[in-house]
């Protein structure tokens, strides 16, 4: 099996002190994609920056203390790339990809946005550029006989099944009609598969983010915004998809939970 986990750590330094390091030591994943790292590599403790048994690559944001993505892999990558050729966004710490022998794995942190503000305009520009790149990425992989999985915090709930309180979020960033339509395209004409949904059809969630405010975690009032978007050849090998939800509120080390997919696929 080839197992991949995606997790928005909500600040890697903070998460490391709350339980991330112990989680990493116990995971069976072959690749772990991190988002919202919020630190440059030199700011991380040695055992976090380069954990034993892992090869690590980082893409910190130019804006200090914000965004940032990383990938940890047990398999030595043959190459890695930061950004997707965007003059505006390649320095924003929102995209990093690694090449393994048969598959490219991406860690993505899509902007959160804020409806009817410049932040939403920025998110829309990011989605437009990313959508075009996803087509190129899939076509190149197909030509090379490779697969792709784009893991990360997409900051969009795709359908009503992906947000507990969807009626209260119809006009909010993350569940706007145009954002959901864009995901329709990603999981439609652009050619990627929503792996978690394909393995959990017709159910609410499984949610992967819960606000720290109120009783959201305890009542499972969550959002499913952390996706594995895979090319069809890889997606059809997905055997299990699990949201590693903490047993209790006190045991959380992020406001997101790891989303782990096991693929019956030989990456080497």
UniProtKB/TrEMBL annotation:
InterPro entries named in the record: AP_endonuc_1, Endo/exonu/phosph_ase_sf, Endo/exonuclease/phosphatase, ExoIII-like
Gene3D superfamilies assigned: Endonuclease/exonuclease/phosphatase
Domain (Endonuclease/exonuclease/phosphatase) ranges: 6-256
PANTHER family reported in the protein's UniProt record: EXODEOXYRIBONUCLEASE III
Keyword Ribosomal protein attached: no
Family: Belongs to the DNA repair enzymes AP/ExoA family.
Phylogenetic classification of the source organism: Bacteria, Bacillati, Actinomycetota, Actinomycetes, Kitasatosporales
SUPFAM superfamilies the UniProt entry points to: DNase I-like
Record bears the keyword Zinc: no
Names of the cofactor(s): Mg(2+)
UniProt entry keywords in alphabetical sequence: Hydrolase, Magnesium, Metal-binding
Organism of derivation: Yinghuangia aomiensis
Domain of life: Bacteria
UniProt protein name: Exodeoxyribonuclease III
């Amino acid at each position: 099996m080839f197992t991949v986990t995606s997790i928005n750590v909500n600040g890697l330094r903070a998460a490391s002190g709350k339980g991330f390091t112990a989680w990493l030591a116990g995971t069976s994943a072959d690749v772990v994609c991190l988002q919202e790292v919020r630190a440059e590599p030199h700011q991380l403790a040695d055992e976090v920056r380069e954990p034993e048994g892992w090869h690590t690559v980082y893409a910190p944001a130019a804006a200090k203390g914000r965004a940032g993505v990383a990938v940890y892999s047990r398999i030595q990558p043959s190459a890695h790339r930061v950004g997707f050729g965007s003059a505006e966004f390649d320095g924003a710490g929102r995209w990093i990809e690694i090449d393994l022998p048969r598959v490219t794995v991406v860690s993505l942190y899509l902007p959160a946005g804020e409806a009817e503000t410049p932040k939403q305009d920025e998110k829309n520009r990011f989605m437009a550029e990313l959508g075009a790149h996803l087509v190129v990425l899939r076509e190149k992989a197909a030509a090379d006989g490779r697969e792709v999985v784009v893991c990360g915090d997409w900051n969009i709930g795709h359908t009503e099944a992906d947000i507990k309180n969807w009626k209260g979020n119809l006009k909010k960033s993350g569940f706007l009609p145009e954002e959901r339509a864009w995901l329709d395209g990603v999981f439609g004409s652009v050619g990627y598969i929503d792996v978690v949904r394909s393995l959990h059809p017709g159910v609410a969630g499984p949610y992967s983010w819960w606000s720290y405010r109120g009783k959201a975690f305890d009542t499972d009032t969550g959002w499913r915004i952390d996706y594995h978007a895979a090319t069809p050849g890889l997606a059809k090998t997905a055997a299990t998809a699990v949201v590693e939800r903490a047993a209790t509120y006190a045991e959380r080390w992020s406001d997101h939970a790891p989303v782990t997919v096991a693929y019956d696929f030989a990456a080497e």
